[in-house]
């Protein structure tokens, strides 16, 4: 009787549920995680601000030895300083190169350096690196930190305005200063004694301004990312006192000016600062500090396949809030998850410092306060359920396999089986209604079968599995 009631409640809820974001725990035992990256395989690499890079296995277990360790003789830590960024070379599988962004011990300068993996151990890096670019920092905050290879193969470096409050040196608008900018360099082509060169289409090459600059007018682009699907650039720029902003542009547009410190978000910050001869690029989404927000932690547009309802959403967070935000990429509207609880009354805030994606585009989020990595999931079954055709499933329930019959379907038909958590557990293309779809490996319970025919027609039906 209990099983029947449970199934009935589930069946009644299927048609009414909305998307529900959850954060199941993935990995623990970390210290101050500030970045998550992958090297094109199932491992995740977690950057710890204190100087270590840890490796997570596909099941969330942490490998016992550090991938890389930078000591206090190399880096300065604390506050907004430390080991801050990691980017694997596009040809990492063959050349073994990866790059890190850290704050240099002694003078606090930003250094982007190249390291190599141990050729005899894929879980260990060689201890000696080569600094590629060094940028002096006047203050200990607004140092940026993220580095990413773009779809063009060049390395992009997000640089804050160097602090302190309000960019007193007006560095973000100064084209002769690398602070408050997005830099773009070619790490594969040395220029004399300099280990990198500047791409010819950088906006200030052969013109007034620093050759490394790709974009100007940024306050502190702590996190940015390139869309895995279309290459677009997403920049979450940390605001001053009132507004956090998210920018979305194509990755091929050079010389954009994001407005700081003339503008904070869409609002004027410094009256008289804006130049009438400059076209400013304004954010696609903003939010205020009301409700306790303080610092945007940028993320990624979801490009995975496990959670269909997360498609067309850019996921982000805020350091001071316990929720996750989503920007609809079609409307730029922001929605939020519910507030999550840490379960620890002595440490009630997650302090979200980074989002990350794995090789399949699935998303993760890092809590600096708890030293944990969480997966971002969708627990709903709210898939598109408009029916352009009618699907019949036999046998239903099924104990080993089933067949579908779809009236007027244009084959081939793409079949996805979705479990109660919203996860796609089986994905198959069938050429006719006589194709068997196996259910033996699946646990008993209620599932949704989503079918999409060759013309885009969609229909959904429930499936019971018994063993």
From TrEMBL:
Residues 395-463 form the Secretion system C-terminal sorting domain. Pfam families: GSDH, Por_Secre_tail. Residues 1-18 form the signal peptide. The keyword Transferase does not apply. InterPro entries: 6-blade_b-propeller_TolB-like (IPR011042), Glc/Sorbosone_DH (IPR012938), Quinoprot_gluc/sorb_DH_b-prop (IPR011041), Secre_tail (IPR026444). Residues 31-337 form the Glucose/Sorbosone dehydrogenase domain. It comes from the Bacteria. Keywords: Signal. NCBIfam families: Por_Secre_tail. This is Por secretion system C-terminal sorting domain-containing protein.
């Amino acid at each position: 009787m209990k099983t029947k009631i449970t199934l009935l409640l589930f069946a009644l809820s299927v048609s009414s549920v909305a998307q529900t974001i959850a954060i199941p725990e993935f990995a623990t035992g970390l210290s101050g995680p500030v970045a998550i990256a992958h090297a094109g395989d199932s491992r995740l690499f977690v950057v710890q601000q204190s100087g270590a890079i840890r490796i997570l296995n596909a099941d969330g277990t942490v490998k016992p030895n550090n991938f890389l360790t930078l000591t206090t003789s190399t880096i300065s830590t604390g506050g907004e300083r430390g080991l801050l960024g990691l980017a694997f070379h596009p040809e990492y599988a063959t050349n073994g190169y990866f790059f890190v962004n850290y704050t240099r011990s002694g003078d606090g300068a930003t250094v982007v350096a190249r390291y190599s993996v141990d050729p005899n151990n894929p879980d260990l890096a060689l201890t000696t690196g080569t600094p590629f670019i060094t940028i002096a920092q006047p203050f200990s905050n607004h140092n940026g930190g993220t580095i990413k290879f773009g779809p063009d193969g060049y390395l992009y470096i997000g640089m804050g305005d160097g602090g302190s409050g309000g960019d007193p040196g007006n560095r973000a608008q100064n084209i002769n200063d690398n602070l408050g900018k997005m830099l773009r360099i070619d790490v594969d082509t040395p220029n004399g004694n300099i280990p990198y060169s500047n791409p010819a289409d950088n906006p200030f090459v052969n013109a007034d301004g620093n050759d490394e600059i790709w974009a100007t007018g940024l306050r502190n682009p702590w996190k940015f990312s390139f869309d895995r699907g279309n290459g677009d650039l997403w920049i979450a720029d940390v605001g001053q006192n009132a507004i956090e902003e998210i920018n979305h542009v194509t990755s091929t547009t050079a010389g954009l000016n994001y407005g700081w410190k003339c503008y904070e978000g869409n609002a004027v910050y410094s009256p008289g600062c804006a130049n009438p001869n400059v076209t400013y690029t304004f954010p696609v989404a903003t939010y205020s500090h009301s409700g306790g927000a303080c610092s945007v932690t940028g993320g990624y547009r979801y490009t995975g396949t496990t959670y269909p309802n997360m498609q067309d959403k850019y996921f982000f967070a805020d350091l001071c809030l316990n929720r996750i935000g989503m920007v609809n990429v079609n409307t730029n509207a922001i929605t939020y998850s519910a507030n999550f609880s840490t379960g620890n009354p002595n440490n009630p805030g997650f302090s979200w410092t980074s989002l990350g994606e794995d090789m399949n585009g699935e998303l993760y989020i890092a809590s600096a306060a708890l030293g944990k990595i969480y997966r971002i999931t969708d627990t709903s079954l709210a898939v598109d359920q408009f029916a352009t055709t009618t699907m019949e499933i036999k046998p239903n329930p099924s104990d080993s396999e089933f067949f579908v019959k779809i009236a007027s379907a244009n084959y081939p038909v793409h079949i996805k089986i979705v479990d109660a958590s919203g996860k796609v557990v089986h994905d198959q293309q069938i050429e006719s209604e006589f194709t068997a779809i196996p259910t033996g490996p699946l646990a008993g319970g209620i599932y949704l079968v989503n079918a999409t025919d060759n013309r885009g027609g969609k229909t959904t039906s429930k499936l019971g599995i018994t063993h």
